[in-house]
Every structure is written in C-alpha cells, then in structure tokens.
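Data card: per-record layout.
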Amino acid sequence: MTDVDPAFRDRLDQLERDLRELRGRVAALERLVGTAGEHAADRSTVREKVSYDWQS
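The structure for this 56-residue chain is written out next.
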C-alpha cells in the first residue's frame, strides 16, 4: 500500500496481529476439546435422528 495514512496502516497491522493471535487461540481450544469437534447437543440430536430414522 502506498500513500496510506500511517495511523490506518498501524491499525491494520494491529488487526492482522490480533487475527493471527485469535486463530492460534481457536486452534488451541480445538486441540483442548479434542478431535470430535461435536457439541454434546449435536451428538444427542444425531442419536435421536438415527433412532427416528431406524424406527420408520
């Protein structure tokens, strides 16, 4: 970017750093939760749907 307001450039750089940090934090949380990646409510809903489909 040429001829860009330095304050704007600083803000953009800070936002890019924040985004990298947030991506790292999300990745760490995903590792902490595990590879299942499903919320308990999602598993319950899938189980109920499978039971319903099987009974049909």
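Known properties of this structure: DSSP finds two helices and no strands in the chain. The helical segments are 6-33, 40-55.

See the next section for split statistics.
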